[in-house]
Amino acid sequence: MGKKFIDELKAGESVISFFAVRKKQIKSYNGNSFLVLELGDKTGHTEAVLWKNFQQVNEEVQPGDVVKVKGMVGTYREEIQIKLENIKKAQQSEFDPADFLEHSEKSSEELFQRLLAKAETIQNRYLNQVVKSCFLDQSLSTKLHQAPAGKMWHHAYLGGLLEHSLSVAEICETAAKQYPLVNRDLLIAGALLHDIGKAQAYRWTTLIDYSDIGRLEGHIVIGERIVREKIQQIPDFPEELKMQLSHLILSHHGSLENSSPIVPMTLEAIVLYYADEMDSKAAAFSRIIKKEGKEGKQWSNWVHLISRFIYLGDKPSGEKEPEE
Questions:
Q1: To which H or E segment does residue 86 belong?
Q2: Which end of the chain has the lower number of beta carbons within 10 A, N or C?
Q3: By the 8 A CB rule, do 160 and 148 touch?
Q4: DSSP string, 246-264
Q5: Three-state DSSP state, 88
Q6: pLDDT for 95-130, tens place per residue?
Q7: In CATH, which of 1.10.3210, 2.40.128, 1.10.10, 2.60.40 is domain 108-284?
Q8: What's the whole-model pTM score?
């Protein structure tokens, strides 16, 4: 039997397929304990519950493992849920790793070369050098070709970091033309480097998760350190320029509540913050509209991360979906 993907599951059907375990938790209801799993593949994720003999499964199966499951698809709180009958850890020969992590529709190598071309447009020789030294560092570039830009929300797929960084740089390019006081070279350097710490903050196998250092320090701190260490290798790098570039990286989440160590306090920093916000939010909305719009709905499911529904559009009868 071939792989059945998450987005193909329909209530009332039985399923036998392979999924990656993302999370697991033992819960109880009316005094009875059961195992709740979050299962996923490159098309999405769903909850699965196991009531019988779950203790052994809980010991044998860990997040990141691929499991073969048999169960009945139902719904719980208007969401698809699998009621498991059997589940076992799969052997590597039984599944295709490509089924579990989505890849950017664009070539990673093409994105990487476009990023380097954008770096070449930076006229300031110090900023030009630090950007290229980061992206041409072999220990970083290998990861950058694959790294996602998010765990689940935006650009959460292989190659997503390159795609997001380049998109933010393009938005900043337009903003620099709109606001004459912007230091264009500084802003573009910050845009290209703002999320570079994610190359080390995430790990990806059959799912995207935080690495140990990513969970302990966060991608902002990691990224600023990567850039600072490269700057130390560049003779006579101006102290003022170093300070402003560090500020761009440290403040790009915009507020202390959103895990920025500092808030934006320069013109370039506030532009970068909103460019990053625009690209991440627009990409996340686009993903939801593209996925759930195919189901013929007018509104998305409730999006917990942003506490709202997303309007998918009211399509007149007979109107076709745009071709991908």
A1: strand 79-89
A2: C
A3: yes
A4: HHHHHHTT-SGGGT-SS--
A5: strand
A6: 888 888 888 989 999 999 999 999 999 999 999 999
A7: 1.10.3210
A8: 0.81
